[in-house]
Amino acid sequence: xxxxxxxxxxxxSDLAQRNARIATLESKIAVVEAKxxxxxxxxPKTLVSPGNTxxxxxxxxxxxxxxxxxxxxxLVKDGLLAAGMTITSEGSLSAEEIDSKKLIDQHYYAxxxxxxxxxxxxxxxxxxxxxxxxxxxxEAALAAGNVHNAMDACALLGISADEMDAQWGVCKKAxxxxxxxxxxxxxxxxxxxxxxxxxxxxxxxxxxxxxxxxGVSIYYYTVEWDAAALSWADFRGQLLGPTDPADCPAGxxxxxxxxxxxxxxxxxxxxxxxxxxxxSASPFEALAERLNWCGASLASDPFGAALLAAGVSAAAAxxxxxxxxxxxxxxxxxxxxxxxxxxxxxxATCVATCKAIAAAN
Length: 361
What we know:
- The protein is built from 17 helices and ten strands.
- By secondary structure, the protein is of the alpha+beta class.
């Protein structure tokens, strides 16, 4: 009997220990289940590949001088906000600042570089075309000192931008004008009582004067938006509207400015040149415009930083801001305008294309 009692006591002790172990295991299981529940209620982090980190588009928009009124500024701002955009900055730039810093010259660099920024000896002039047109070698014309960019020619001749524009028309009518390439012209300006000059891109001075005439200004907005909600192509085609206001959708910014120009306080109906508002043609052009007009830096600008992170060098990105001809990706030996290659692309795609262009060059 004592032996049986002892055995029962031992079994009871073993059972108690087993129950204790079961309780411990159940407690651990409960802790794990609780942690699992917490994890399941937490949104997982999205892992984004380095090439797709740009989810926002960012553009530079400005009301052109001929359209800067309080009513136009309000129309443009309301239109941008209604499209779901965030305005990250806005402000005014006067004609004096635009002129002194040559902001409009940098904006239209491909044209303006020949008219106001570079001197003739710095230009890559096709000497055969020059001599064929004017019957004088390029070297002889340079040596004679009668070759000038449009700005220097205006100063030397003592004429205004509008007068230069009129003389450019005379050159064209008299067939004393030669085209060297896209946005690259030379004309022989001959005025009674003044020296005859070979002038580069004389037409640009009247374009420039629209931004630098005393008392005028631009009003700008830097904006950003979700690329998934509005593509860059629709931003330009639908929200901004085509270059010619006559072709614009009624609800576009340019279309509204054309339709309401008198009520908005404009002096004349908008046309192809004076079409109310400008907006960047691509994320890269927007970067170039922020660097120029807003004094942004490449590394601190979100799109600029994305280019650097993608392996595009600062030197290449800076050189690209003036729209050079570049080797295009694809291995076919094609070259073309950098700006054209990137037009209407959303930010992530634009970064990837820039990376491919950098590799091709």
